[in-house]
Every structure is written in C-alpha cells, then in structure tokens.
Design a protein that fits this description.
CATH superfamily of one domain: Phosphoglycerate mutase-like
Keywords: Disulfide bond, Glycoprotein, Hydrolase, Secreted
GO molecular function, one term: acid phosphatase activity
Main location: secreted
Helix content: 25-40%
Oligomer: single chain
Order of helices and strands: HEEEHHEHEHHHHHHEHHEEEEHHH
CATH topology of one domain: Rossmann fold
Radius of gyration: 23 Å
Pfam family, one: His_Phos_2
Distance between the termini: 54 Å
Number of helices: 15
Subunit structure: Monomer.
C-alpha cells in the first residue's frame, strides 16, 4: 500500500459525500455509522503500520498513540519547525470548576518546505555539493546525497499529530459531546491546513468509535476575509532588519567552518541558515534524524532557534506595529462564542460567514479552527499572551525570555480557550500547547479569569485594533 503524503484519510474539500463525513441515509443507525468509521480508522492504522510507524495502545486500550520518531534531543530548538510536544502536562480545572465550552485554534501539522524555502535551501545545497573534495569528513555524505523532499504538503508525522490531537480532544472533553453538540470545525483554505483539519476530525471520530463524527464545515478562501490567515495587512512591515542582524552574529563562524570543509562552496550566511533548515525538514519528513543535524552543535542550533524567535516576534508579534491587529478578528469571534453574542468586528472577519448560524453557530461546546503559525502569533500578541518586559534584542538573546517559538507555534501548535463554570460564576482558562497561561492581564495570575473581566481585557480587539487596521491600507 502506497504511503500517502501527509493524509491519514483522503482530505475533505467540502464534499458531503466524502466517506468520512457522509450523512447517514434515512434509517441508518448509529451502530452502522460506528462500523463504517471503525473500518476507515482501521484502514488508516494499516497504512501507518505498513509504512513502518510504531503504534501502541494506551493502558485503557481506548486510543492509539504514535511512538515518537527517532529525532535528536535538540528537536525542541528548531523553533517553528519543531514537531509538536506538550510544553507542560495538562492540568484539569480547579476543584469546583467544570469545562462548559472549549475553543481550539491549531496550526497545521509538520510539512515539507514551502516552495520558496525549497528554492533557497536547494540553491545553498547545490553550492555545498559542487565542490571537488571535502576536507571535513562530516560533509562527505553529500557526495551521494540526493534531495527528494516535496513542497508545501503535510508529511506523515504532521498528519499523524493532527489525528492524535483530535483523539486527545475527545478524551479530554468527552463530557461536552452528544448527538446535538458535535465539534464545529473550520480551516483556512491552504491544502495543508484543510488536511490537518480533516485528520483531526478523523482522530476525534476514531476516539469515540465513530459515534460522533465531526466534519470540516467551513473552509475559508485565503484570498478573501479570513481570520485564520495573516494576509490582510499589506502595509505591515518586515522583520528583515532584526533577523539579518542576528544572522550576522550567530552564522559567520558556522559559515567559515563549512567553507573550510568544502573548499570552493563559497557559502553565505544566508546559505548556512538554509542548510540548517534541512535538519528539521528532513527529520520530520523521514521520521529519523537527518544527517544535516550532525553538522551543527547544540549551541549553533540555539542560535537557529533565536532566529525563529525574532522572525515571529517582529513578523506578526509584539515587535511588528501592525502584527497584533491581524489577530483581532479571531479574538472577536472567540468572544462571540464565549458569550453567545453575535460577532462585533470590522477587521478580518467574513461578515457573510459570521452572520449565519450555519457557518458560525453559537450553540456548540467544542470549536476547532485550523490556521498558520504567523496568524496564531498575531492572535497571541493581540490577546496579551507571552508579553515581554522588553523587545527582543536582535543581537543578544535574553536567556530568561518567555517568547520561545518552539513553545508557541511549533508544527501542530494549539491554543485551547476553556470556558469554565466555577460555583455559579463563569471563568476563562487558556492553554497553549497544554501549558496553562498565567493571564497577567486578567485575574490573579493563577490562570483563571472571570469571563466578564476577560472580555473587558480584550479592549484592543473590541475596538477593532484602536485604528491599527486602517493603517494596514493607508
């Protein structure tokens, strides 16, 4: 059986006759639907087993867990290219509190390089492979190396982690699910995002034996208003000044070493960075440590990680004047769901979609949205998460910073906003990659915030970005 490119199941593209989301014919029983879903889940498992991935049952025998692939210990230094891991172990709500609603936004799973990144890294690789002789033995594998990665699409690990995320959500929030309250799922229109959403729904259905099978109900065209993509602020500035400054600090010694080991390669510092990206891209695609990882030290990868921190901080985060405003639309949608009130927003929202209960219901207990890392960073910054005491220094990393891209937006990153009923009062709790956020801007720093106070704390979003959105176009 051929190994699929990053899809456990065929991706859903809005077709109601798709086998995984087909509505039952009149008279079809829930048990029949469960058998269908169980069969499809088995097909996916067989595909993975035949592709060499190791599955194992949990102690309760209720879920499938993929064994962690053979990745180096420093995979958590790969910034936005790190595969997902739980930053902290999930903590249940405090005694006396119960979850009544959860809103999830998740980045697509691990992928191949984008087409632009692939061009840059293959250009750098061509330089490194053009030399006659390698004086550094660690480079000699390049004589036989052939680059064979695809572009843009999910890799198998990315598909699997989305599937597992869907399983985990059902297991964690099963009490919120019934026949009339099945998760409402949306995805931004990129193929890798839609495929991630489809795999998430498959994992959710598998975890409950196919009794509750959500579908991807809304796919948002990325050429239109889209709160799950960061493409609506043409006047937003660049992060080039900051990333270039850091590149000139951390890369020259590495470039000199590579050029000494490959006389005639004439690599630049930009080439060096692109060669370093081959370590995460090859590792997540092959699910084994890439030979390129062994070309660099842990200290050098710490510099690589900071490059990612600066990229996101000054791209759509706090360091970009028009970064946070790109997260305002999603926050206003979140507030609408939490309060059960219509969306109030004049930024990125699609008013046609958000004004219809078919495409933006307010009566669900679980919402799952699928997005991109840059958009999630904008949302975090607009909300007030991961705020720094001082802007990130492009020449000197602060070892105590909490802005760590690998903690914030690795592949399959996820934020869960839980609405809690606590002794007659509603609260909000936010987890990013399972780590409870302190919410310094609201509450007492324990991670709980009374719902009304949380709404009030989002004044930037509720004011449509205090005029920043207009600056995106003027």
């Amino acid at each position: 059986m051929a190994k699929r490119k990053g899809a456990l199941f065929p991706p859903y593209h809005g077709n109601e006759n798709h086998p995984r989301v087909r509505k039952p014919e009149a008279g079809t029983t829930r048990s029949t639907l469960a058998l269908i879903m169980g069969f499809l889940a088995c097909v996916a498992v067989v595909q993975l087993l035949l592709s060499g991935k190791a599955w194992s049952y949990s102690a309760e025998g209720t879920s499938l867990v993929l064994a962690l692939p053979e990745l180096p210990d420093n995979f958590r230094d790969w910034a936005q290219y790190s595969p997902w891991y739980a930053v902290e172990e999930y903590v249940t709500p405090p005694q006396g509190c119960s979850v009544t609603q959860v809103n999830i936004i998740q980045r697509h799973g691990a992928r191949y390089p984008t087409s632009g990144a692939a061009q840059r890294l293959t250009s750098a690789l061509a330089k490194l492979q053009s030399v006659q002789t390698y004086t550094d033995p660690s480079l000699r594998f390049l004589k036989m190396f052939k680059y064979d990665l695809g572009t843009d699409d999910l890799v198998g690990l990315g598909a699997t982690q989305s599937f597992e995320a869907g399983q985990a959500v059902y297991q964690r929030y099963a009490g919120l699910v019934n026949e009339s309250s099945i998760p409402f799922v949306r995805a931004s229109g990129s193929t890798r995002v839609v495929d991630s959403a489809s795999n998430w729904t498959a994992g959710f259905a598998h975890a409950n034996g196919g009794l509750y099978a959500p579908k991807v109900s809304v796919i948002i065209d990325e050429s239109l208003n889209d709160t799950l993509d960061d493409a609506m602020c043409p006047k937003a500035g660049s992060n080039d000044a900051q990333t270039d400054a850091w590149l000139s600090v951390f890369a020259p010694n590495i470039t000199a070493r590579l050029n000494a080991g490959a006389p005639g390669a004439n690599l630049t510092d930009v080439d060096t960075y692109n060669i370093m990206t081959l370590c995460p891209f090859e590792s997540v695609a092959k699910e084994n440590t890439s030979a390129f990882c062994r070309l660099f030290t842990d200290e050098e990868f710490a510099g690589f990680e900071y490059m990612g921190d600066l990229d996101k901080y000054y791209g759509t985060g706090y360091g970009q004047p028009l970064g946070p405003v790109q997260g305002v639309g999603y926050i206003n949608e979140l507030l609408a769901r939490l309060t059960g009130q219509p969306v109030q927003d004049h930024t990125q929202t699609n008013s046609t979609l958000d004004s219809s209960r078919a495409t933006f219901p307010l009566d669900r207990t679980i919402y799952a949205d699928f997005s991109h890392d840059n958009e999630m960073v904008a949302i975090f910054a607009a909300m007030g998460l991961f705020k720094q005491s001082a802007p990130l220094d492009p020449r000197q990393p602060d070892p105590d910073r909490t802005w760590l891209t690998t903690h914030i937006v690795p592949f399959s990153a996820r934020m869960a906003v839980e609405r809690l009923a606590c002794v007659g009062q509603e609260h909000v709790r936010i987890l990013v990659n399972d780590a409870v956020q302190p919410l310094e801007f609201c509450g007492d720093g324990t991670g709980l915030c009374e719902l009304g106070r949380f709404v009030e704390s989002q004044a930037y979003a509720r004011s449509d970005g205090e005029g920043d959105f207009e600056k995106c176009f003027n």
